[in-house]
Design a protein that fits this description.
Blueprint: H1 21-30, H2 36-60, H3 63-78, H4 88-101, H5 118-132, H6 137-157, H7 161-171, H8 179-191, H9 197-201, H10 204-222, H11 226-237, H12 241-263, H13 266-283, H14 305-319, H15 322-327, H16 336-349, H17 354-360, H18 368-383
């Protein structure tokens, strides 16, 4: 995704399409446009609306509409000759969300400096946001620390340990307040283990969760945006709200069907719930008190609910005869590739969601029970 527009606004002005001055003056005389002040107000509404949509789709985890509104927001930002003071926060917020969404994609570059990862660029915009508002000490500090940790973690997950060490040098100053975290991250890089408790606890999932908490107040404030209010009135006057309600009901039914299918593997569900409780307890502890590691989320895109339901139905038909198939096969050793697939699936779907992991992973005639047993074995091995 190289070539994504950078943070610097494009200078306004520039080239005509060969239109003569006489035709230009005559056309301007024929059609009188809105005054510049009106255009500026409309542009404000549009940028605020685009920023609101970005926040909403980021919060809901909807990748496709987020990408569409990202293009709109970026085009509006690039059209600014300079960023007005009252729009700075919105511009910085849009750029932050765009980079957080691409944070695990090291092939994506937003600045001319190719060695700068999306999260490093996000950190610079987060710094700008901190300057534009009264600092919310706890939340701001948490987000800054999470971005710093994940910059290192993403490089390590991709096997770029040398680059992780280099980025650590760029990230931190020699201040005493940064020293404890800097020393811990340096030690983790030397271990070349991206699954250590610190990186698993301060995960990418936790980072996005904190960002969502940060953007909630902005979304509430922008609900008074003129475009949002006008569009809402139009929808209500045309009776389009009923269609939205129907779609919402269908989505809720799909969700209930998915939960029903997942409950058919009761032991796995219990394990997943316990895992979530353990992760929450770890998140509340300081790094020194961490004992039980949690699992990192994966950067892959989530499948649609309907596709998951179809896959789960096929899986259930297969596992009705699972015992018979297992008896007819010789016991096979787990390959290194299968272990990686299992760990990747756990990072994406969480411990206990074995059916999902099986469907979306590349396993050789395994069952969800086998995945669960193998994970327990790996945990015992890692614990010594």
């Amino acid at each position: 995704m190289a070539g994504v527009a950078g943070s610097s606004p494009v200078e306004a002005g520039g080239g005509g399409g060969g239109v003569s001055s006489s035709s230009s003056s005559s056309s301007s005389a024929a059609a009188v446009g809105p005054p510049a002040e009106a255009e500026a107000v409309a542009a404000d509404w549009m940028l605020e609306f685009a920023c609101y949509c970005l926040c909403r789709h980021f919060g809901e985890g909807r990748a496709a509409p987020f990408r569409r509104w990202r293009a709109v927001a970026q085009a509006l930002i690039d059209g600014l000759s300079k960023i007005p003071t009252h729009q700075k926060k919105m511009v910085y917020l849009c750029q932050l969300l765009i980079r957080i969404a691409e944070g695990k994609n090291l092939e994506c570059h937003f600045e001319n400096e190719e060695r700068m990862s999306p999260l490093e660029s996000a950190l610079s915009f987060w710094t700008s946001l901190e300057r534009e508002e009264i600092k919310l000490e706890k939340l701001h500090g948490d987000i800054r620390r999470l971005i710093q940790i994940q910059i290192v973690a993403v490089h390590m997950e991709n096997g770029y340990f040398k680059e992780a060490a280099e980025v650590l040098e760029r990230l931190f100053t020699d201040s005493e307040s940064d020293k404890p975290l800097r020393v811990k991250l340096a030690s983790i890089i030397k271990s070349k283990d991206p699954y250590v408790p610190l990186l698993q606890t301060f995960s990418y999932d936790l980072l996005t969760s904190k960002i969502k908490s940060y953007i909630e107040p902005f979304m509430k404030r922008t609900e008074t945006n003129f475009l949002i209010q006008a569009a809402t009135k139009h929808v209500e006057s045309k009776g389009l709200g009923a269609t939205a309600l129907q779609n919402k009901t269908v989505n809720e039914n799909d969700k209930r069907n998915l939960e029903t299918n997942q409950r058919r593997e009761a032991p796995d569900t219990i394990t997943s719930e316990r895992s979530m409780e353990e992760q929450q307890s770890i998140t509340d502890q300081p790094p020194g008190g961490i004992k039980n590691p949690t699992v990192r989320p994966h950067s892959g895109r989530k499948p649609r609910v309907s596709s998951v339901l179809q896959s789960l139905n096929s899986l259930q038909n297969l596992e009705k005869h699972g015992d018979a198939l297992a008896c007819g096969r010789r016991r096979r050793r787990w390959t290194y590739k299968e272990d990686l697939e299992l760990k990747s699936g756990i990072r994406e779907f969480g411990v206990g969601n074995w059916a999902k992991i099986l469907v979306h992973g590349d396993f050789n005639n395994r069952t969800s029970v086998m995945l669960k047993d193998r994970w327990r074995t790996l945990c015992r091995i890692e614990q010594g």
